[in-house]
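User: Show me a protein chain along with its predicted structure.
Assistant: Here is one chain, sequence first, then structure tokens.
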Amino acid sequence: MKFIKKLYDWVLHWAETPYGVPALFILAFAESSFFPVPPDVLLIALAISIPAKSFRFAAVCAAGSVLGGILGYGIGFYGYETVGKPIVDFYHGQAVMDKVKILYDQHGFLGILIAAITPIPYKVFTIASGVFTFDFWSFVFASIIGRSARFFVVAGLIWKFGPTIKGFIDKYFNILCLVFMVLLIGGFVLIKYVV
């Protein structure tokens, strides 16, 4: 745990440098396939430092995350045994991979979207998507929606409420993700059956 805490502090220090935005992109990219510290940490620090740029930071974070997710998909598709399996094992993610497969089998695209938004380790989701050969473009589309939703909700809260919202986000982050996921999927269901 000391190692993770040191990584966490190292990630946060980038918010105080002129390289915060490139570091956010690289962190989001790396976290999508192997890095243990989520980019939300740096996103929150940057957005609190300049709330007017919150949505720009969220866009950078989402772009890095989706592109890194494509790398994770490639790891699962082309190199699971040599590269992907050690990553999944490190995060004790085999059970998560099984859940992702069940969600995909039962719900198709919505299953991918659910997995992309929920607080399961995104790197395990991306690798699992490659291993199970999910439709690549559905995976990319779900990743764009899911990761953008996650980061833009955080940015929106900070833009609206400023630094005072940080404690609330930290405390209720997983619940906020789940509520947003329910609303988003509810919208898809509504469109499918009503329109």
